[in-house]
Each structure stands twice: as structure tokens, then as C-alpha cells.
Request: fold
Amino acid sequence: MATPVATPRTADLRSEVPLISVRNLKTYFFPDEGIIKAVDGASFDIPRGRTIGIVGESGCGKSVTARSILRIVERPGRIVEGELLFQPDPHGTPEAAVDLAKLEADGKRMRGIRGGAISLVFQEPMTSFSPVHTVGNQIVEQIRLHMRLNKKEARDRAVFLLRQVGIPRAEARVDEYAYQLSGGLRQRAMIAMALAADPMLLIADEPTTALDVTTQAQILDLLRELQQEKDMGIMLITHDLGVIAEMADVVVVMYLGRVVEEGLVDDIFYNPKHPYTQALLRSIPSVQAEPKVKLPTISGGIPHPYNRPTGCPFYPRCPDFMPGTCDRHEPELLQVGESQEAACFLYGGVPGTSGGAPVGVHG
Amino acid sequence: MSMPLPMADSELPVNGEGGTHGHRTGETLLDVRNLRKFFPIKRGFLRKTIGHVRAVDDVSFTIKKSETLALVGESGCGKTTTSRCVLRAIDPTDGQILFKSTTGAVLDVAKLNRGQLRPLRRQMQMVFQDPFSSLNPRMTILDIVGEPMLVNGVKSRQERLDRVEELMKLVGLRPEFMRRFPHAFSGGQRQRIGIARALALNPSLIVADEPVSALDVSVQAQILNLLLDLQNELGLTYLFVAHDLSVVKHISDRVAVMYVGQMVELAERDVVFSRPKHPYTSALLSAVPKPDPRSRAQRQTLQGEVANPAAPPSGCYFHPRCAYAIDVCKTDSPVWEEKSPGHWARCHRSDELELTGIELG
Reply:
């Protein structure tokens, strides 16, 4: 059953040290043809015990951001700049945080964190399990990598986890192979594996995109229940604004590798500031909206990664484009509300001016 | 099998050529009656047939000219199989598919042989889901969009060139690019190419199988607008297969909901969305995440999973998951009947239940 979740107050989010603070992250890929700036200066905080939604269209860098945090970016990609400050202790100081970007990707420390304190649920549950090992053995392996349990105890825990994610007849299912499970059950098993070592943060990369709506509703309910029970942070990556509205406490909107806006979910949906967020929200058909009318669209398409525009990445498609400013300078994230930030020159920050205060062109 | 059949007014005089609003009085273009498609399950050395997957199990509906009928349902419910049968891309096991040809004759697509089908093929075309795999990477746009014409006897290259140019303008692409290959285009542009190809022979019926589900939201809106524009301009009729209910709500005139090979509900769009008569429709509507954080979480989550179409449950296929199931639902299959004018449903209890839909703004 769906449990209503209270929207967080700004104070809670600001007063504690974030679990992970992403600072000016740049992850580039270096294929033979040139450089792809998949993530190009993203900054945001991941709060504890809350759901942060990362939203954006394909190629905006949302998945690469998640992979950077877990340090599983594949060659020819690598983190070229920025910090990923991880502070497991809620009473710890930001200074004592571990910078994940500086750790050895395959080193002991990072291997302990990956799958331990931070774990990942992939989009495609079919391909993320090994087809030649039972689901149970794969979960047991994960448990024994991160916890000091013997085989028997680990297996018991695997059954416990499968039951916890709502898989019927967990004692029998633990010995089945991934192909024997339906899409929904497979995604549940994937979540069970991610929960193996009681993570502080569960990164879910499009966890329901491959599922049907009724199954999606079940999985979203499950994630919410688990979060309440375990006080676990969830980083939910999706292109589906409906899922974001339903699940997230805080939202980060990305476009071409940059964070263009972030804020509380209510502000993002009811008071979006960045022209891209506004256009994105207008362009989705809603079941409640007037049918058969023309949807407002964003003109043009997402630029090819080799032809990134200079200045603000959104200016060629932006209705509020200011020639001479947006195409020359890169906007920084500016405070545009109590706990809302947007990277747009409409709200000031134009180099060479005294600006900085929101000008309030949109509202 | 005697079943109440949906109205088939194909004898009515032609009126309202084109224009989406003409459909209510318009003639029936497609009348599908008791369509069935069973796939055999073969096992063992002798490939003995040990059962059947009832992919489409007694589906009946009509589409009027210039109307959009949306087929919705979850994966495996038979919506794609139904649409493929309509085009005779696969042969149905049983049933009639009555299609009104441009000559005025009503032909049963299910019974025609290859030769007889050929002239009909140009009147019904398909737009595919994945714009990346549905275009041959080694053909230029000119060849891709021109091929249906070549196959159907337009031999003059100049004629094809002119038509491709016209089509590219129609779908919002620059004709200068017609000698490029598909890889040079983005997902949205490729879907436009797929639509141009489908339009090449001036079809009357377009079967669009999930045409926007592989696209990003900002591009999805552009393609939906294009489909609506083309319908207004050319008077096209769409059979629109989709799982995204907000897209369906936006584009359709009537909506048909399928579950495990059967149609469970069919009515005007706003009726299906606001006053559903089948519990599955109601649950489906409730499961759609709404892009509004203030309307969060008053969801009725459907338990369990979609039934296996090779071994469907007894009685009503939906009864194991249905919150309103009573004894009769476990034993007797409900019949497909018109509960109120134009509103069809397959449920024992649809007259007594007060089901909730979505409040329409």
C-alpha cells in the first residue's frame, strides 16, 4: 500500500551534513573522435534518508553522474575534475568526508563502499543478473563481500531479503535462475541484492522504465516502504516526470551534463525557474490536460555531444535567449528561492554586471 | 459463437472526408469481429503441439474514418498482435477483419490471399516503435521513403523524387537531406522519416505501434503534434497502440483496454478515463504516476502479476487480481457487451460497481 511521505522541510535538509556532496563533477569520455563532456560541472547534495530525483533527457549525464559516484565509469571515460564528498556519519564534519573521486576505483576502500554503503539498481533487470548462477548465489556473494557471515547465515539473509522485497515463496525462489522470474520479480530480486549490506544510499537508475505501469506502481511502493523502514537515501534517476513527482523530495534537473535547476519537488513542479524545466513540464501530455491540442514543444533537438554550444548549453533552444550573454558565458547556479537554485542569466549573474539578485522574469 | 457485434455501419453514405471531428458521423473504415490469434507451443522431438498461447482471444472493435482508436494494455496483452493481424503481417487464427477499401468495397482482410491483399496493402501502413532499428542503415532517406512507391509500381525516378520531397516537407524535415543515411538523424527525425515512409502511398489507415515510447519527452511532444496535424490535414485514421496512458489520453478519440488477449473495455476517451466500467481499467488509471507532487500516493496498487496467456485463469481472466471478484467471476467468463451506448465492457459486475477514474480538468 502506498504510504504518504511528508515533504521535507528546508531546515532538515540544510542543517545536516549531506551524505554525498557532488562538487563541480566533470566526467569526460575520450574516444578517438574527440571529447564527450558527459558530465560537465555538476554540483548538488544528496541528503540522508530522502529521495533525490535526477531528471533529464537522454544524454544529459544523469546515468554517468551515478556511475561516477560509484566509480564504475568505463574507459575511455574518466572523472577529470571535481569532488564527491562522502560523509557516512550524520554527525561528522564536511571536512572529514571521504572524496570518492580521489579513491582508487578498484581499491579496497572503494570496493567496500560500492555495493556496501552505496548500491545500485539498474534499469534492465534481465541483463544485470548472471544467467548461469542462481539469484540466491548472486545475492549471497554480495552479502559475503560486505558482511562477516558464513554461508548458511548469508543464505538465510538472502531468503530474508527476497521476502522483504515481496517475492512469494522466497525459500524456493532463492535457487532459481534469473530467466525463471518475471520482469517485476526480477526487479525485486535486483533490489534485494542492492539491499544486501544495508546501504545508506540506493542509486536506482531508471528502475521502472522497463516495467509495466501496474508493476511500476508495486516497485515504487516497495522502494518507499524500504526507505521508511531503513532510513535509506534513494537517488532516483529517471526521465519520467510522473515518477519524479510521485517519489522525490528534492529534484535535480540536468541538461547536457550540467545541473540547470534544483530544488524541492513542489517548487520544481509549481514554480520552475529555468526555461528548460518550464519547457519540459509544459511538453509532457498529462491525463488531466485538454486532449488533442497542440503540445508546446521545445524547438530543435538535443545537440550532438561533439557540437556542444558555447555558453549556456540550452541557449539554441531557449525561448528567453539573450544574444551576447547566453551564447558567450556559462551561467552558474544561483539561489532563486528559499531552497531552489537555477543556472540561468534571467536571474542575474551576468559577468560584468553587478547582478546577482533574482530579477523575477518568470513566475 | 454468437456474440453481440459492434455496430458496423459500412453501408452508410460517405460524409465528412477528412477532419477529426467528422468521425462521429463518418463511415466505418475497419470492423474487426471476434479476432483470434493462437500461437502453438511445441515441445519434444516431434515438435508436438502441447498447447496454445491465446495472444488475441475474441477481440471485436470498429474504427471510423479519421478517428483515432488507442489500444492500451500491459506487455503481453496482445495489443501488438492485434495490430499485426489487422495488417495481415501475421495470419489470424479466426475472425473477420472488414476493411473498407478506397473503391468502396468492404473486404475481409483475414480471408484474402497474397495477390488480393496487394492493392489493400498500400491503404494500410505501419509506423514502428524503434526508429533506430526500423530504418535500413545502408539506404538513404530517398530510398527508404521511396521504396513503398517503387514496390507499388511508381517506376519514374523523378516522380518518386518529387513525392519524397513533398513528404519530407510534410513531416517537417528539410528535403535537402534526402540523400543522407539514417545515422545522420536524431531519434525524433528518424521517427519523422518512418512516418513519411508510411504516408508515401496515401494510406487511409495508419497502425502506429508505440510510435513515441522510444523518444525523449521534448521530442515526443513534437511527434504527437505531427501525428495530430497529419490527421487533420489528410483525414488519416489511426490505430494507435501504446502503453502510456497520458499519451493515449492526448491523441485518441476512443480507447480500448486489453488484458491477457481480451478486450476488457472500449468507449469514448473521456468516458474510459473518467467513468471506467472495468476494474482493470480503473487500476491501470490509478497506477499511472501523475506529474503533480501534490496529488501523490492515493493509489490502489494492483497485487500479483499479469496472467499467463498460455494458461489463463478460469472464469474472468482478471479475477485473481480483482478487488471486486465474487464467486461467479471465478467460474464464468464474462461476455463482451455494450453496457451503455458506445461503452463496451467485459465484466460481470460493471453495472453495480462504482469505479473511479481520473478527474478530468
User: Anything to note?
Assistant: Chain B touches chain A through 52 residues (CB under 8 Å). Confidence is low (pLDDT under 50) at residues 1-24 of chain B. The longest helix of chain B spans residues 217-234.
